Amino acid sequence: MPATIELAAARKSVATAKVLCDKRTVWLPNSHTKLDLGGIGVGLGIDAMVYHLWFAGIRSAFIDISGDCFALGTPPDEPGGWPVRIAGREATVRLRNQAIATSSNTTSVIELEQRVLGHIMDPERGVPVDTHRQVTVVASKAMDADALSTASLVSGQRYQLSSAVWTQFTG
Questions:
Q1: Does the residue 143 lie in any domain?
Q2: Alpha carbon of 7 to those of 3, 10, 24, 112, 139: distances in Å?
Q3: Which residue range(s) make up the domain with 50?
Q4: What is the pLDDT of residues 117-167, one digit of tens each?
Q5: How remote is the C-alpha of 52 from its chain's centroid?
Q6: Which residue has the higher pLDDT, 168 or 74?
Q7: pTM, entire model
Q8: Is residue 64 part of a domain?
């Protein structure tokens, strides 16, 4: 585990981190600032695929990247939606034009100093989230589901989404 002084230095770097952007460019003016888009990157990629499939005329598809998914339309002969089993649970949900994402610190783990630690970090403490639970979020956009499942796992809070954003794909 990092020493107290190492954690203090990391927290100081995070506190002074800057991310600047304009309409088309993002840049990091401090050499110690780094971005990790792991909490939204998969969802963003899925949303881009859905966008391209929709405008190519494809109305039925199921996209799954590392367990983050988007159900476009319905599968053939199943008007109720795409059946999706929630990882580690006995529950199944049916999705239509929706995304689902699950965040957990129970699967991608390491053992360090006789402790099992997950891969999702608590940015306030600078150490892995100390919980062994999972959070699943269903949303109209994959990036929202991806970000909110991670944020909920880190904070222990539940988040409420505003109205669906699906209108950008359906006209």
A1: yes
A2: 6, 5, 34, 17, 35
A3: 36-170
A4: 777 777 777 777 777 777 888 899 999 998 888 888 888 766 555 433 322
A5: 20
A6: 74
A7: 0.76
A8: yes
